[in-house]
Amino acid sequence: MAMPQESIWDVAAPGGRFWQWLPTPTTTSILWAALALGLCWLWWKNNSQNDRPRRTQGGRKSFMPGPRPLPIIGNLHQLGELPHRTLAELSKTHGPLMFLRLGSVPFVVASSSQAAKLVLQTHDKTFAGRPVHWTAPKIIMGPTMPSVLFHQPDAYWRLARQICVSDFFSNKRMHYFQGVRMREVSNLLVSILNVALEGSKPILLREVLQAGILNIIAIMSVGKPLQRFLTVGSGSCDVDIVRSIFETKASLGLFEIGDYIPWLAWLDLQGNRKRHRQVAKNARTVLQRIVDTRRIQHGSQGNPSPQDLLDILLKAAGDPNNKDIQFDDAAVRAILLDMFVAGTDTATMTIEWALAELLQNRNKLQKLITELHEVVGSSRIVHENDLPNLSYLRAVVNETLRLHPSAPLLPPHRSMDACDVDGYHIPMGTNVYVNAWTIQRDPSLWENPLDFEPERFLGSPMMDSIPGQYMELIPFGGGRRSCPGWRLGLLITQIVLANILHAFGWEIPIGTSVSLDEKFGIAVSMLKPLYISPLLKLESNILIDAQKTLSDLVEIT
Ligand code: HEM
């Protein structure tokens, strides 16, 4: 019988096989070797310029300017606690289109209104993507992230977004829920009244606002305030739905090292994954319970016409025309989460910032109070129908969104294709930040840009503009990825702000002050939340009667 031929490896080492000369590999040594190889690869990738936007002018190639990255972490160390501010500083050196590498992920930062226009208008379709490395949303919503906010712009996303825009956020639906919103505003006023009657103790205004606004979004989305869904049991652990929503928001706002150094993601260096998984399990449990209950109700009522977002989504999920698109329960849950996550803090923080600015600028506060008094009088609360007559209020909200946009860098966009922007060739898969914060404080666009001057909007065409119409003012983004809930966001911000200023005076406790320092997060908030005392201005029975009348008008089951 012929002997099998020896391979080159068998003969390479005299007296034995090649690998017998190597030390026996242990798991640790394999890990170290893998780590070393990974580091080399990252070093090479960081220093290679393959994915760096470049342009050719007069036969000479030049790269998009940007700060020099470090190995492995790229420019991550330069972001600091308030990335919109540090990126604004860097853009002063490197220009309005700047390249950075965050970890190993390539980013372009647009810091002028012209650069924003290129991203959000001229190449809107190309830059409609979202990052592919997004640990928390993937764990919480599932690997395809079937949410409007996080999903890539494909047929599913277009359908989900269109359902939201043309049905849920339609004028008809907004009008339908007007009574509900007013009733929740009156509830909010009465909860502040109870504090005021106790001798005007200071309150954490943010908590009261958050609870009221969450209720508005919940009723419009799932038919009733979240507290009305009894705490549900899931096996041995009980899941509180309001807590679950807050935990989800907190998880989605966490900085994840693996999103920037994907190669390290599996190590879960920050130990966040366990937390995300628990958050995902809780959210799935509470939301699925709501979905199942509604299905049972639908079953017993025949095919009712949709009223809230859940009805609309279930109708879409059962529509045979959508059978090629996976519009399943995971999608329904993710879109509901979108509304709670994207709709609550943005409006809450905008109201808090507005009040903080007004307390620092007492003459503007007085002007707004006078307007409210003239238009509404002192015998009733402010109604949504009053809003068209409250132009200074609208100007105050615009000015607040200019100085304090909730998402100062907008959520990251991503190029779905290679494209040329301002002569630079930008490869597919490049992430993009649009620095709305710096654009909205650009001295070449705004006079005295750091001053709180609502008057600048009076008589300006920007006063009632729609998102993306003016690139100088983009708190809601622009283009196909712009905020679909902007009308509702503005409505809630205006009606709540108007009412808390009309019904109460606000005092800063002696020995404290209002600080405009910021805290970065899913929505940028005040570092030191407002802790202020309400002083009743309207007669208390006006608030109590309003609450009673509105509750009688709008019944909730
Ligand atoms: C003052 C209030 C609000 C502000 C400042 C705000 C701001 C924004 C911004 C900046 C974006 C991203 C735009 C981009 O990527 O270019 C966005 C997206 C979004 N917003 Fe809002 N928003 C507000 C209120 C709301 C409300 C009330 C809802 C829903 C109830 C909502 C739902 C969404 C959703 C679903 C998206 C994702 C859109 C997409 O990716 O296609 N927002 N919002």
UniProtKB/TrEMBL annotation:
Cofactor(s) named in the record: heme
Residue numbers binding heme: C483
Biological processes, Gene Ontology terms: secondary metabolite biosynthetic process
Pfam families recorded: p450
Annotated family: Belongs to the cytochrome P450 family.
Organism (species): Ceratopteris richardii (Triangle waterfern)
PROSITE patterns: CYTOCHROME_P450
Oxidoreductase among keywords: yes
Signal sequence, renumbered to the chain: none
UniProt protein name: Cytochrome P450
One GO molecular-function entry: iron ion binding
Superkingdom, natural source: Eukaryota
Alphabetized PANTHER family for the sequence: CYTOCHROME P450 98A9 (PTHR47944), OS09G0441700 PROTEIN (PTHR47944:SF4)
InterPro entries: Cyt_P450, Cyt_P450_CS, Cyt_P450_E_grp-I, Cyt_P450_sf
Keywords: Heme, Iron, Metal-binding, Monooxygenase, Oxidoreductase
